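Thread title: Can someone regenerate the structure for this chain?

I was given the following input by a collaborator and told the matching structure tokens would be attached. They weren't. Posting the sequence so someone can regenerate them.
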Amino acid sequence: MSSSTPADSRPEPRYPLLIAVAVFIAAALSLLWPILQGQFLAGEDQVSAGYAFRALATASMRAGHGIPQWNPFILGGMPLWAVPGHFDVFYPTAWLRWILNADTVLDWSFFIHFVVAGIAMYMLLRTLRTGWAAAMVGGLAYEFSGILASQVSPGHDGKLYAAALAPFAFVALIRAVRWQQQSAYGWLALVIGLVLLTPHYLAAYYLLIALALFTLWLVFLDPERPVGRSPVTPLVMTAVAVAVGFGIAAVELLPVQHSVALTPRAAGGNSVGYDYASTWGMAPEELATTILPQFNGVLAHYWGRNPMKNHTEYVGVIVAILALLGIPAARRRKVLLPLAVIGVLFMMAAWGGYSDFYHLWILLPRMEQFRAPGLAFYITALVVCVLAGLGADDLLAGLSSRRMLIGALSVLGVIALFAGAGLLQGLAEGLAIPGREQYVIANQPELQSGGLRMLVVVLAGGAMLWLIQRGKLVAWQGVAALVVIVGLDNWSILRLFPQWLPPASVTFADDNLTSMMKKQSPLPFRAYTPSAPDAGNAQIDALTVYSASSLMARDIPSLLGYHGMESRYFDALLGTKNIWQYQYAQNMWDLYGVKYVIQTTEPTGLARFHKEMGPVELTDNRALLGSYATQAVVMERDSAIQWVRVVPTAVKVAEEQIPPTIADPRFPVNSYVLFPDSSTVTTEKVTDTLPKPTPVKAKLLSWEPGAMHVALDGTDPRPTWLVVAENWYPDWHVQVDGKTVPVYRGDGALLTIPIAPGAKDVKMLFDIAAYHQGKAVSIFALALTLLMLVAPRLRNRTADA
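Best answer:
Regenerated them for you:
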């Protein structure tokens, strides 16, 4: 330690939290200030799908219909939110959509959680009894941690929400277990419930694992644990708090759990297992990016082992130095062991399939259903920022090691010099996987400029740290210096990640094509734009006109779209997921009510369709919207679509034979409905002649997402089948002439209803029973949480009286 440093130069202002919050707000605005101008934060997933989902929910909420359960606009229809990986529905900021536009709420939710992240880390460091300034610096470091703040680029709001709330859970645990504040168990339950209500369950899962480890340390190894206390009570109460937290989120968790078996993440699906779950990890060599993000390349310059990378794990050069200075402080406070174990464990988990450790990690329950383990690094970043806060506290208190500071600055300075001089380029080229060498070479100027930037930070920031350590910058001077150097260092990297578009009303405004379709054709109908090349079908132009779910954002239902948790039966019917080899079959278009085919050029020989418009030049924000074509042609069906059709004959075939059978142009979709051979329905044998057409005709009287009313005209002595151009899910409820009838999965994926002779009226409603059950559980859990918060205070007041 330096004998010349003042004993303590840590100021404590009159309104410490208020000043800290002001700093966190200013930091968030420095990155997200365009939201004040009404611009749209164009995160990749938000542009491709997230905004469209939220817009549908917003329109329904504004119309007084509440939160819709069914989304008919993509992938043949699917639950809007009761599937894994959905958008925020019951999370508090979602309710702003009652009064604000979907894009506005989305933007401000990112901003709010930037600030929340800073406050949460501030509270955690104060709970660990650091000074005000150190807690504020640690909060700023966490708010500006790359794994959190750069999520604006991929548009992963759920990751940010969960990570922002995470420090609050550790605060509650310390207060509950170490300080024996019984009401803190209620706060723990509330935080866990909120984290589980974010639209990212993997982030919540990682937090729960970290909390479990921290709880065990608090109960059994914490030197400050109450003497003579039985470990049973804190363990049981923590378990109760976690259970209540799950109960708070039951309104969402029960429906999601109910639907998992119908998604690609079901057992046997193509989105489950080690090969799936281990993808999108953070390769070990990418640890270099925590201090030198240009080493592996930033955004378009990325050359690492993943196909792409639109975020960063940058923790900051100054934050890294402060974290090193915080190790002795953590050791004195007896918290180094849990911090080190949790930080290292989640760093190894973040490596995913790039480390053998993941073979053990994936043994955790259901871990094989989640991918992108690189997210685990947010727990490591949390630990680093705690250490940085402790290091800042020691630095301002005159307790930091001058030798450690000089050593850290020297090592980082040498790395920066090597990078700036181009001496790390050979190392980068040696680490490149086959096929990526040209990207490493192209990144050389970025690596060198990144090294020079890092050198400036080491020199300027290091000088500030040195002056604070020597006692030349004291009290408010030292605090201001720390805030500036931490903020500017991280801001200089994070500023690259926000991308902006005009408001959604402009960005997703109707163009000539969508205006024409909506004017000429009332819903329901579907449009189809190819998603992949088909070498065997030259008449289909595979260049995408509207990719992902951008048609949904304009209220146009499309055959395909983007989600990832659609019906696995739809995936099978259209072909392999994301390849969709049967997407070109016109029988599929018939079954799903495709009225328009949108391509870049007019196809030749496309039967039963004529050109309605085009070629039309498209000049909107197409590059950022994920749409690559600059012109398009719309082909319209010659005859009316059949959203509902009556089919006379049911036949059973092997499940795997249904898609190719329907895709065969010779298959008569109006004569047969196919059921898998495992179905319980009664079917007929196929004969050499087609069955006689049924005289019963179906007319769609009304349609809205998740509700349909159909009139049947004509009579047929035979039992017939009503096939609907929307996907089957068990939560469809159907009444025929006022009597409830079962629903079946016909033609591989479609909602199919048995029709008795003489039936006239059919009503369909999508309503998830698990949603209503979960809502009751959530209300009870919230009441229990309130009791956990209030009861200890009432008991203490009674005892005092």
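The radius of gyration is 29 Å.
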